[in-house]
Structure formats: structure tokens, C-alpha cells
Amino acid sequence: MTTAMTETRHGGTGGHAAVAARARKVVKAYGSGETRVVALDDVDVDIMRGQFTAIMGPSGSGKSTLMHCLAGLDTVTSGQIHLQDTEITGLKDKKLTRLRRDRIGFIFQAFNLLPTLNALENITLPMDIAGRKPDAEWLNRVVETVGLAGRLKHRPTELSGGQQQRVAVARALAARPEIIFGDEPTGNLDSRAGAEVLGFLRRSVDELGQTIVMVTHDPVAASYADRVIFLADGRIVDEMHAPTADQVLDRMKDFDARGRTS
Question: On the chain, which terminus has fewer CB atoms closer than 10 Å, C or N?
């Protein structure tokens, strides 16, 4: 049985947090008849504003599918997805593209930086494309938060992997999106660089009031979150607040030992 998750802990906004995104009775299925595969099975979840939420689960549990549906990158078979008060399920492609551009930030495992642009140009590129002028004060604050002040004129080839991902984080933060989605954002980094990027994501929540949703398989990465949501067989089966890496690891071992837990 799945239930809406509404409990809050600490986060960038403090106090009682509002809902940044929510899913109601969401089903995502592929194929039909005997070949039908259900990736999400009647999922209800609230993502709280100003908090860092991690989504975890065994391979094939539906964690990436849930993130893609919440972010408007994939359609649902049935149910509703809301970004604050806007229902995104059923939006036409043009409106959905505009919503993703204007209200959502993305950080992927691949850095997706343009090699001919320097760090600052990569950070502001989405706003340049949208015809929006960056807020200089906010941009400076983001650059300071992710520790890039001395690297803005460097091109991607002149930056380490960790620095490139910091550029990607700054790019997501610079447009002041309502919510940022990260799909294994430290998956291509060594442990030290990954810890740096996760620390910057944590700071963006605590100091900038950002809302972040991250899919990860790494218990250490999940320990930076305020809350971890666990999926198995397309359903939310557990959650954890103020997690430690050891607690998350134990819970993931539980999946391996017992399969789906409800």
C-alpha cells in the first residue's frame, strides 16, 4: 500500500514546508497484454519545498521512471503529476517544454557542457537561449556556493570532472528553478569529487532554499538528503528521515535479502 508522504524535517526554508511537486495514483506501464510491464504502480508522493529528497531502490524498482515523470520528461499512463499548483500531466508539448525550461533544473550523470564555451557561458546558456538576463547578484551567490569563482573563464577541457559537475550544478541553480532533479549526479565522479558536489547540493538547500530530488544507488550520497524514499516493484515501500549512510545501506541490504517489502 502506498501513502502520500507529507512529514517534513529541516530544510532551506525552515518551518512547515509547502509541497513543491506531487504525484497522485500514478501508473506508468509499457506494452500491453502479456508483455505489459508496470514501472510505477499507483504511486502517491509529495516532494516538500526547500528539502533534499533522495529516491532509492533496487535496479528496475522504478526510481528513475518516477523522477522522469515528476520532471515532465516522461508521460504517465494514468494519474496526475503537479508542480506546485500546475498539473503537468496532459500539458501539450510546447507548454511542457516551456515549463521545464522556466521552472525546473536538471543535473545528469553526464555533465552536458558545451566544449566551446567557458564555465560562465555554460552556466548562463539556458537563460541565454530563453532570452532571460541572469540576476547578477543571484549568479554570484550561486558561483560562490559551488566554489567556482576562480574557474569561470575556464573551458570544460581545463576543468576536472568534479569541477565540470559543479558547473552543471551552477547551471541548474542559476535560473532559480522551483525544483532541481538529479539523476545519479555523482555517478561519474570519484568519491572525493562526488562528496564535494553533494556538499554543494546540500548547501544549496540550506543556504539558498533550493528544492532537490536526486535518484541514486549510493547510500553515502543519500545520506546528504533530508529524506530518502525507497521504491520496489514500482511502489513506495518505505522512507527515512535524517538518514545516515549505514542506515540506508542496511535498508538496501534488506531489499537484497527479502525482495520487495511492504
Answer: N
Q: Is 74 exposed, middle or buried (0-12, 13-18, 19+ CB in 10 A)?
A: middle
Of 220, 227, 232, nearest to 256 by C-alpha is: 232
- Its domain, for residue 3, covers 1-8+16-89
**78-123: pLDDT as tens digits:** 999 999 999 999 899 999 999 998 899 999 989 999 999 999 999 9
Rounded to an integer, what distance in angstroms lies between the CA atom of residue 232 and that of residue 257? 13
Single pTM value for the model: 0.87
Q: Is the domain of 74 the same as that of 100? A: no
In 10 A of CB 105, how many CB atoms? 25
Q: Which residues contact 60 (CB under 8 A, 6 or more apart)?
A: none
Shared domain check, 99 and 38: no
The contacts of residue 21 (CB under 8 Å, 6+ apart) are 46, 47, 70, 81, 82, 83, 84, 179, 213
